Amino acid sequence: MSAKEVKVRNTVLAGGKPTICSAMVGKNQSELIEQAETIVTKKPDVVEWRVDFFENIADADAVVNTASSIRKKLGDLPLIFTIRSIKEGGQEIPLDESGKVELLKKVCETKSTDLIDYEVENDKADIDAIKQAAQQNDVKVILSFHNFNETPSEKEMLNKLEKASAYKADIGKLAVMPNNMSDVLSVLQITQTAHTDLDIPVITMSMGVDGGLTRLVGWKFGSALTFAVGSKSSAPGQIPIEVVRQLEGYLSNDS
Ligand SMILES: O=C1C[C@@](O)(C(=O)O)C[C@@H](O)[C@@H]1O
């Protein structure tokens, strides 16, 4: 397997092949289980739990128990555990950064997830602590960057992905909001550049209605994962999984 591929359970995250993630955004265990059951029927390749939506996030045992109940519903589908910060488009949560880091480490130690998403702009010491707990427990780390207001310059976007690589993330991720179609082209351009030049896989998307096309064709430019709606949307512009899957079929060589 090349350094640009990450294998989690039976899913290979690379670029250049269609791979879909659906998110769960329930506020309690029963909503999450219901969403997991619906999502599984839609056959994504990966599932994300957006834990910032979980009302019991401050109770680490509740989080770990819920992760294990979700895990049972997912069969062999890889799970991404994400606490998106309010700064980068997430929900307000009753945990400060050190509480968040402790929770992420515990989730790694209890092997409750396959991947952790943490933002690349966080303190390097926190990133290193999470990376270490993850590595010891065979959990992969995605270092991500989000901007829900605008699309930074191509140079800045590439810098974020390069930083993820320099910090030894397993995968780099970038989600930004376009204000025009040139912004959408920029995301596709930097996706191709990062896919060619970096030594880790990258996940990219342009959000909103205008960015929607990146969710359909990003993999052709090297994005290793696209987020599509399996039960409920977790970001603007996400398209139902059935639509993404069908189009991917037409764009694949083996169709
Ligand atoms: O980072 C991402 C990407 C995303 O923001 C999107 O635009 O699809 C959705 C989030 O749930 C996920 O954590």
UniProtKB/TrEMBL annotation:
Catalytic residues in the record: H146, K173
E.C. code: 4.2.1.10
Pathway(s) this gene product operates in, as recorded in its UniProt entry: Metabolic intermediate biosynthesis; chorismate biosynthesis; chorismate from D-erythrose 4-phosphate and phosphoenolpyruvate: step 3/7
InterPro entries: Aldolase_TIM, DHquinase_I, Type-I_3-dehydroquinase
Source organism, top-level taxon: Bacteria
Enzyme class, spelled out: lyase
GO BP annotation list: 3,4-dihydroxybenzoate biosynthetic process; amino acid biosynthetic process; aromatic amino acid family biosynthetic process; chorismate biosynthetic process
One Pfam family in the UniProt entry: DHquinase_I
Residues binding 3-dehydroquinate, per UniProt: E48, W49, R50, R84, R215, S234, Q238
A GO MF term: 3-dehydroquinate dehydratase activity
Catalyses which reaction(s): 3-dehydroquinate = 3-dehydroshikimate + H2O
Coiled coil: none
Keywords: Amino-acid biosynthesis, Aromatic amino acid biosynthesis, Lyase, Schiff base
Alphabetized PANTHER family for the sequence: 3-DEHYDROQUINATE DEHYDRATASE (PTHR43699:SF1)
Family per record: Belongs to the type-I 3-dehydroquinase family.
NCBIfam families per the UniProt record, alphabetical: aroD
Quaternary structure and interacting proteins, as annotated: Homodimer.
Function: Involved in the third step of the chorismate pathway, which leads to the biosynthesis of aromatic amino acids. Catalyzes the cis-dehydration of 3-dehydroquinate (DHQ) and introduces the first double bond of the aromatic ring to yield 3-dehydroshikimate.
This protein's name: 3-dehydroquinate dehydratase
